Amino acid sequence: MFGFGKRGSSSPDPAGPRVSAKICTDKFNGKYPHVGLYDCRERKVWVCKPLSGQAIRTSHAKLITGADNATSTVWKDRFLCFWFYTPGTGEGFIANYPIDWEEAHLFVRVDPNWDYDRQRLIPAELEDQAAENLDRQHKHGERIFSFFRDVKLKYPFSLHFYAQRATDSLFYVKRYEPRP
């Protein structure tokens, strides 16, 4: 009567954030640099389609339905964002850290103070909780790494965790080497 009971949970919330199937796929052929999303609720990797060679320049927010422009971040709260650079497609330093761009690289954005799993902010003073949260995000990042490893790319690539503060970032965490 008052709406306090359980709602039917058999179907996902249609108004909630979803990855756009028009722009994204759950498959990758290894041929182009791109951005992508990891859905922390569904534990699924989404890769931006080639988009005429612009997949690496596409905004993460644009990959999610409901985003009304490329800078909207309101829908991204449950998705870890990542960038995958194929060999020779990147340049420069990342957080003042030198990167060998002749190889492929997977960068996963992490945030110790945003809990993607529980959809809540962790105050900076709760350092233990922030550290545990970062560990969970690293595990999600390793699942993204596994997605690319399972594609059996013909070139090596390295996993990096990139955060707003350099002290929360980790470079060259894992490396994939193709089998001859």
Give the structure's gist in a few sentences.
By secondary structure, the chain is α+β, with helices and mostly antiparallel strands. It has one helix and 13 strands, in the order E-E-E-E-E-E-E-E-E-E-E-H-E-E. Residues 5-13 have low confidence and may be disordered.
SSE topology:
Blueprint: E1 18-19, E2 24-25, E3 34-39, E4 44-48, E5 64-65, E6 79-85, E7 93-94, E8 97-98, E9 104-109, E10 114-115, E11 120-121, H1 127-150, E12 157-162, E13 170-176
Name the poorly predicted regions.
5-13
> Strand pairing plus helix content: what structural class?
alpha+beta
Using DSSP, what is the number of strands? 13
Helix content: 10-25%
Outline the biggest β-sheet.
Answer: 7 strands, mixed
Task: Give the strand order of the largest sheet, numbering strands 1, 2, ... along the chain.
Answer: 2-4-3-6-9-12-13
Beta-strand percentage range: 25-35%
Shape: globular
Q: Return Rg in Å.
A: 17 Å
If you average the pLDDT, what whole number results? 87
Spatial gap, N to C terminus:
65 Å
How would you describe what is shown here?
- This protein is an alpha+beta fold.
- The protein is built from 1 helix and 13 strands; from the N terminus they run βββββββββββαββ.
- The strands form 4 sheets. A 7-stranded mixed beta sheet has the order 2-4-3-6-9-12-13, with helices on one face. Strands 1-5 form a two-stranded antiparallel sheet. A two-stranded antiparallel sheet has the order 7-8.
- Strand 7 (93-94) and strand 8 form a beta hairpin.
- The chain starts with 17 loop residues before the first strand and ends with a strand.
- Mean pLDDT is 87; it is low at 5-13.
